[in-house]
Amino acid sequence: xxxxxxxxxxxxxxxxxxxxxxxxxxxxxxxxxxxxxxxxxxxxxxxxxxxxxxxxxxxxxxxxxxxxxxxxxxxxxxxxxxxxxxxxxxxxxxxxxxxxxxxxxxxxxxxxxxxxxxxxxxxxxxxxxxxxxxxxxxxxxxxxxxxxxxxxxxxxxxxxxxxxxxxxxxxxxxxxxxxxxxxxxxxxxxxxxxxxxxxxxxxxxxxxxxxxxxxxxxxxxxxxxxxxxxxxxxxxxxxxxxxxxxxxxxxxxxxxxxxxxxxxxxxxxxxxxxxxxxxxxxxxxxxxxxxxxxxxxxxxxxxxxxxxxxxxxxxxxxxxxxxxxxxxxxxxxxxxxxxxxxxxxxxxxxxxxxxxxxxxxxxxxxxxxxxxxxxxxxxxxxxxxxxxxxxxxxxxxxxxxxxxxxxxxxxxxxxxxxxxxxxxxxxxxxxxxxxxxxxxxxxxxxxxxxxxxxxxxxxxxxxxxxxxxxxxxxxxxxxxxxxxxxxxxxxxxxxxxxxxxxxxxxxxxxxxxxxxxxxxxxxxxxxxxxxxxxxxxxxxxxxxxxxxxxxxxxxxxxxxxxxxxxxxxxxxxxxxxxxxxxxxxxxxxxxxxxxxxxxxxxxxxxxxxxxxxxxxxxxxxxxxxxxxxxxxxxxxxxxxxxxxxxxxxxxxxxxxxxxxxxxxxxxxxxxxxxxxxxxxxxxxxxxxxxxxxxxxxxx
Length: 699
Ligand SMILES: Nc1nc2c(c(=O)[nH]1)N[C@H]1C(S)=C(S)[C@@H](COP(=O)(O)OP(=O)(O)OC[C@H]3O[C@@H](n4cnc5c(=O)[nH]c(N)nc54)[C@H](O)[C@@H]3O)O[C@H]1N2
Ligand SMILES: Nc1nc2c(c(=O)[nH]1)N[C@H]1C(S)=C(S)[C@@H](COP(=O)(O)OP(=O)(O)OC[C@H]3O[C@@H](n4cnc5c(=O)[nH]c(N)nc54)[C@H](O)[C@@H]3O)O[C@H]1N2
Ligand code: SF4
Ligand SMILES: [Mo]
Prior knowledge:
Layout: E1 5-10, E2 19-25, E3 28-34, H1 47-57, E4 66-69, E5 72-75, H2 78-96, E6 101-105, H3 113-126, E7 131-133, H4 140-150, E8 158-159, E9 166-170, H5 174-177, H6 187-196, E10 200-204, H7 210-214, E11 217-219, H8 226-239, E12 252-253, H9 255-262, H10 267-274, H11 278-290, E13 295-298, H12 300-303, H13 308-321, E14 331-332, H14 340-347, E15 353-357, E16 364-366, H15 375-380, E17 389-393, H16 397-400, H17 404-412, E18 416-421, E19 433-436, E20 445-446, E21 456-459, E22 461-462, H18 475-487, H19 495-503, H20 515-519, E23 525-529, E24 545-546, H21 550-564, E25 574-577, H22 593-596, E26 604-607, H23 608-614, E27 621-626, E28 630-638, E29 645-647, H24 662-666, E30 681-682, E31 687-688, E32 693-698
Parallel strand pairs: 6-7, 6-17, 9-10, 9-13, 10-11, 12-24, 17-18, 18-19, 25-29, 26-28
Antiparallel strand pairs: 1-2, 2-3, 4-5, 4-19, 8-14, 15-16, 20-22, 21-23, 25-32, 26-29, 27-28, 27-32, 30-31
Helix pairs in contact: 2-18, 3-18, 4-13, 8-10, 8-11, 8-13, 10-11
The structure holds ligand MGD (2 copies), iron/sulfur cluster (SF4) and molybdenum atom (MO).
């Protein structure tokens, strides 16, 4: 074929940052394959990458602003849209105060360089405290633990998967998710490599997952009880003198306190509540502590639970007391070319906690935002600082935050709402104006966030493959325009100039980094493996690691109370957990035919013995009821889940009326978050508690 061209870029869909090699002619894509020369991903991709083509050609994607009118949605010009949005926001803030305009920013924000660079000035121009993001239905406990222990909310220890001898995975399913807060493309093969070099992989999960299939060992655990297991592991390690302070000896604060409190959690005491035997716990502790190197990795299933923050703290403690923090083969800190963490030395923005509380439920602020589980309360509860208008940016909170139905009602009651998004979907349908953006192949990409969490230090810039059309706007262009209208100040810089400005601070000087230089390296630049950086990298004032922060110690009281209250509620005998699928991405990629085709995926997984007891047959449609809602879906009988636990995948529920996502609507499924309860939180931080939502199941 004539004129076949090749484009190299990074996939922006999940955290793995896979390098892609795209063959195309004109605007026709011929193939999307893994880029074997990519400095990080070595040729790996997953099925979602090929859906970038579908996303580009998707007829349902919005290209021009839409305005809701009594006669339905009408296309309006950008000029008109900007005028009206700015005018409405200014008027509402004038009438009710700055905090009357709330915002919610979703997950694709962190995969989008434009939203990252132009989001902060926009939020500043808005000047509202009513800020919400997907963080509080996801990784907030990780940030919290990092802030309390290392002094910076973004200072995450990243498992050194390629050099470790033992990896303990709790509440993560990287064989499907491709890893999170740990950018490690081709995660599955990296796990297999641990086994090949004589090491071990152990998974702790209420479901026998795709990752469990790769592991040497799997332990079932009752949802929400991981903090007990971690404490018992720490108990055994202290009791048997298997600890190691390593090179951090003089920088560990609170060692004796940890040792003393772990005494209270002998394995036999927590066997019943976790469902893991004493022998297994002792063995796991010994294996972990006596491996030459080892690392514990706790992810979403550990964060979005009642004791999420305790879990993420204890994961760090476990790594630390076995000499596996800041060491090769353990967990290490990154040093990316654009170092957001390092830059805090100039800006002083290292994170904050509880500087103020939310108006209605008095939940703590974290780094400027409130827990999204209380967003609906803030919209519907009258009073000063009530939210009267909302801006959603790249977020779908109706499907992704607890009790989506309640939030729908709240959004419907607003005086004004604007959504910056690519679709008319479950959330944006409540907007008065939708400002559509470019996405995927139409956008340039430098990953500001995930280079920060990657298992190697690399840098890569991807140019846009296709030019946007005349009618389209980039996310950053929209935010820049709105910022200037709200603040009255013009920002003279565009995306590339802003990126160049940041690159000049890079610690890597060879080559001297700029967008132009990065364009000369289409497979990325490799700066090598992660290296020990402590204590210099710490942001605590005394350059020590805070092992036993009083907020965690205090929260143990809440945990201990659980030991007494163990009865299964009769009305709700099952614990509900979520799951992910290789061909889904949260709530918004079901409009690609190739990703949704095949057998029904939105099913309720249930253990065969539970199904037999209830007299259910496979594929039978059942009703699932929780404290807040009800859904109906087919069951899928399996032995790969704990008895008493059931699972519904996250991100479905496209049956709602009035949307413009035609393919997704044909594969609607049900929303897990029509069942989850916004009153159930990790109360230390306000992060949502999804794991173990109580439900009953009826024919
Ligand atoms: N029960 C339960 N709830 C969960 C989870 C769970 O496991 N169980 N997972 C949680 C997690 S980890 C997360 S991250 C959240 C996600 O929560 P959200 O971020 O609220 O939801 P997404 O499904 O990622 O929706 C992204 C939105 O961005 C739009 N979008 C996509 N690309 C672009 C773009 O380039 N520009 C713009 N402007 N818009 C774009 C999409 O159309 C969609 O509307 O959900 C959380 N909720
Ligand atoms: N294919 C695909 N990839 C994705 C996404 C996607 O939607 N699809 N989403 C992306 C996003 S936004 C994120 S945040 C990451 C998340 O990536 P992961 O952290 O890997 O999240 P999940 O795949 O939801 O896996 C969570 C695991 O926790 C288990 N679990 C639930 N409750 C508990 C508990 O109480 N204790 C323990 N020990 N385990 C529990 C669940 O059974 C599940 O196996 O994935 C990202 N990658
Ligand atoms: S694993 Fe993630 S980054 Fe890699 S191709 Fe799939 S969606 Fe893209
Ligand atoms: Mo996430």
